[in-house]
From TrEMBL:
<keyword id="KW-0479">Metal-binding</keyword>
<dbReference type="InterPro" id="IPR012337">
    <property type="entry name" value="RNaseH-like_sf"/>
</dbReference>
<feature type="domain" description="BED-type">
    <location>
        <begin position="48"/>
        <end position="106"/>
    </location>
</feature>
<keyword id="KW-0805">Transcription regulation</keyword>
<keyword id="KW-0863">Zinc-finger</keyword>
<dbReference type="InterPro" id="IPR052035">
    <property type="entry name" value="ZnF_BED_domain_contain"/>
</dbReference>
<feature type="region of interest" description="Disordered">
    <location>
        <begin position="1"/>
        <end position="57"/>
    </location>
</feature>
<dbReference type="InterPro" id="IPR003656">
    <property type="entry name" value="Znf_BED"/>
</dbReference>
<dbReference type="GO" id="GO:0003677">
    <property type="term" value="F:DNA binding"/>
</dbReference>
<feature type="compositionally biased region" description="Basic and acidic residues">
    <location>
        <begin position="31"/>
        <end position="40"/>
    </location>
</feature>
<feature type="compositionally biased region" description="Polar residues">
    <location>
        <begin position="11"/>
        <end position="29"/>
    </location>
</feature>
<keyword id="KW-0862">Zinc</keyword>
<protein>
    <recommendedName>
        <fullName>BED-type domain-containing protein</fullName>
    </recommendedName>
</protein>
<dbReference type="GO" id="GO:0008270">
    <property type="term" value="F:zinc ion binding"/>
</dbReference>
<keyword id="KW-0804">Transcription</keyword>
<dbReference type="InterPro" id="IPR036236">
    <property type="entry name" value="Znf_C2H2_sf"/>
</dbReference>
Length: 457
């Protein structure tokens, strides 16, 4: 080793003859090299993330060789040595990327709402249109629901021919698929309504009704009525289900279960028919609502009796006096409507008697007096045609005589005298039965109006 003097200090130097000898670097030099490499990697990372593709991606915190799409959350493998090509390609075709623009050529159609210029002229504008399979399936399911069509309508040959002509691109779903679509629409709308009730927390009024089908099965329908923040009245059917019986406690338990399922605990009134079982139902509901502590005046005014049902009971009691006359006219109408041949013979009698009417006789439902009124109103116009049918059609006369149901002159007279009274009840029932406007304030006026008509007669 040789010595070299630098500013008064003596330092050892390597001899020229020992140039091939190895010298171990110190630990300080190794740390410095690692620090320099870390800084270079950091700069390289920052440089790699300056690509435009990173505007749509986030680096995976668990593995830096992967990135996650901000729009659809898809995970892509994108090491720094491979660049960002895969990320850019995915961002360009990501269906949830709002920056993507559909470059395919679109059709033009007239806008539904035309624009009005300052000169007063109405000008229809064009808007781009693109076929959407998902939306078309939704509209098909909506058609089935709104028009109350059977699910098999979607598989009818005529419907498929029409759709194929209108839009060949539409893949018509099967009956099973459209059934599932209708169920999904129901679930979606039910969830929206539940969120609405949970958010607004307003009081609702309930109406419920029960009836028995021809298969001897009992069904219950529960409807809510409420007013939104814009003071608009709404009506929503929240359940239609079979019930195990008509007893008051059973009805009350079903109503309570539906209220719990929908998250409704603020009930203002419950409107039911004037049946004794409904009185027990209201007592049960009063106890439950008082326990929920969201009632008004301890539910003293919870029970509301159906006005339309009260009028119906009054009319049915009054019709007992002419039950025989109504039964005879109903039998005559039923005979005429029982076959196309009989109806054609009756039309011939109408033409011979020169009765001018665009409609013919209609059958009624015996349990609904409204339909009985409509049947009598239509039949009274064709009294002369029924008399002529009795003379020309021996089968009509013999069949009704065997049943003791052949209408007589006094039967027509009874009905003719009763119709003005029934018309007043019928009109009032229609007004009170409205569901798109408030009706409780009209009950007093309608009842006293009917009383005035009766006094005049």
């Amino acid at each position: 080793m040789a010595e070299m003097e630098v500013d008064g200090d003596t330092l050892p130097t390597q001899q020229s003859g020992s140039s091939n000898a190895s010298v171990n670097p110190s630990p300080t030099i190794d740390s410095a090299k690692k620090l320099d490499e870390g800084k270079k990697n950091e700069k390289r990372k920052q440089k790699s993330e300056t690509s435009e593709a990173w505007a749509h991606f986030n680096r995976d915190p668990d593995d830096h060789d992967y990135s996650i799409c901000k729009h659809c959350s898809r995970r892509l493998h994108c090491p720094s040595k491979n660049g960002t090509s895969s990320m850019r390609n995915h961002a360009a075709r990501c269906t949830k990327n709002p920056h993507n623009i559909d470059k395919k050529q679109k059709l033009l159609m007239f806008q539904n709402q035309s624009s009005v210029q300052e000169s007063g002229e109405t000008v229809s504008t064009f808007v781009p249109w693109k076929f959407d399979q998902t939306k078309c399936r939704y509209l098909c399911a909506r058609m089935i629901i709104i028009d109350e069509l059977p699910f098999k309508t979607i598989e009818h040959e005529g419907f498929r021919d029409l759709v194929n002509m209108l839009q060949p691109q539409f893949q018509i779903p099967s009956r099973t698929t459209i059934t599932n679509d209708c169920l999904e629409i129901y679930k979606s709308e039910a969830e929206k309504l539940k969120k609405y009730f949970a958010k607004n927390r307003q009081r609702v009024s309930l109406t419920t009704d029960l009836w028995t089908s021809r298969q001897n099965l009992s069904y219950m329908c529960l409807t809510t009525h409420f007013i939104d923040k814009d003071w608009t009245i709404h009506k929503r059917i929240i359940n239609f289900c079979p019930v195990s019986g008509h007893s008051g406690e059973i009805i009350g338990k079903y109503v309570e279960k539906n209220l719990l399922d929908w998250g409704i605990d603020k009930v203002f009134t419950v409107t039911v028919d004037n049946a004794s079982s409904n009185d027990l139902c209201i007592r049960y509901l009063k106890r439950r609502l008082n326990a929920w502590k969201h009632n008004v005046l301890d539910s003293q005014h919870l029970h509301m009796r159906c006005c339309a049902h009260i009028l119906s009971l009054v009319v049915k009691e009054g019709l007992k006096d002419i039950d025989t006359s109504i039964a005879r006219i109903r039998s005559a109408v039923k005979y005429v409507r029982s076959s196309p041949a009989r109806l054609q013979r009756f039309k011939g009698c109408v033409e011979k008697m020169k009765i001018e009417s665009k409609s013919l006789v209609c059958l009624d439902v015996e349990t609904r007096w409204n339909s009985t009124y409509l049947m009598l109103e239509s039949a009274i116009k064709f009294q002369d045609a029924f008399d002529l049918l009795e003379e020309q059609d021996s089968k009509y006369r013999s069949e009704l005589l065997s049943l003791k149901r052949l209408p007589k002159e006094e039967d027509w007279e009874h009905v003719r005298c009763m119709l003005p009274f029934l018309k007043g009840f019928y009109t009032s029932t229609l007004r009170i039965s409205g569901s798109l406007y408030v009706t409780s304030n009209n009950y007093f006026h309608e009842v006293f109006g009917i009383g005035a008509i009766i006094k005049k007669r």
